[in-house]
Design goal:
Elements (H helix, E strand, L loop, with lengths): L9 E2 L3 E5 L1 E8 L2 E8 L6 E5 L2 E5 L21 H5 L6 E6 L6 H7 L3 E6 L13 E6 L9 E7 L4 H10 E10 L3 H9 L3 E4 L4 E4 L2
Parallel strand pairs: 6-9, 7-8, 7-10, 8-9, 10-11
Antiparallel strand pairs: 1-2, 3-4, 4-5, 5-6, 11-13, 12-13
Length: 204
């Protein structure tokens, strides 16, 4: 996990107004391999092991191992879908798209790629991107991502979180979209750019 990520990380229990303090016990290639992040407000601690951060609010059950995922998206096409001309900034991947984190980090070497999915803990460590589990929402401050790629099957809460953490006038790519997603978009401040199984929306 990139240590500078803690500048925008927040407590999953207390919400986006409460930041975390990092204790790095082991570093390698400029990344945190082992340590923990603590919340000064609730005093809870969230571990980092093998470069993987567990940012789940209690109760915390055993994490899944690596599981087969179908992200429905090609990493090479993502910069165009997100409208990233210069390929910089923070990109958040949640659910099935998170398995593409390594590939996307190679396509966008100047971007800060963050994958959120329980299964990522069983994947090999990498200095190219950051991996974490998070619940109930995204553990980020508001407006810190230049783009989000989310699996619609995670539910409306995560779609709303993507809108919250995305910067103004940025894009959110939604995979596995269905009619329920179209209804959600119609009631949200987001504007549809591309519709279908892969839907692209723009924030206000």
């Amino acid at each position: 996990m990139h240590p500078y990520l803690t500048d925008v990380l927040t407590c999953p229990r207390c919400g986006p107004d409460f930041g975390l303090v990092l204790r790095a016990d082991e570093m390698a290639d400029g990344r945190v391999r082992a340590g923990s992040m603590g919340c000064p407000n609730c005093r809870d601690a969230f571990p980092v092991a093998a470069g993987f951060a567990d940012l789940r609010a209690p109760p915390r059950r055993e994490l899944l191992g690596p599981t087969p995922r179908k992200p429905m998206i090609d990493a090479a096409n993502l910069p165009a879908l997100l409208g990233l001309v210069d390929g910089t900034g923070r990109i958040v991947l949640a659910g099935a798209p998170a398995v593409l984190g390594e590939e996307i980090a190679q396509v966008l070497p100047n971007a800060d790629v963050v994958g959120i999915d329980d299964s990522l803990g069983g994947r090999p460590e990498s200095r190219l991107w950051s991996r974490m589990a998070a619940r109930p929402g995204f553990p980020f401050r508001t407006g810190v991502a230049r783009g989000c790629v989310v699996d619609a099957r995670l539910g409306d809460r995560i779609l709303e979180e993507a809108v919250r953490v995305a910067m103004p006038r940025s894009r959110i790519v939604i995979t596995h979209a269905d009619e329920a997603v179209a209804e959600w978009i119609a009631e949200s401040p987001a504007k549809t750019l591309v519709s279908g199984g892969i839907t692209v929306v723009a924030t206000g």
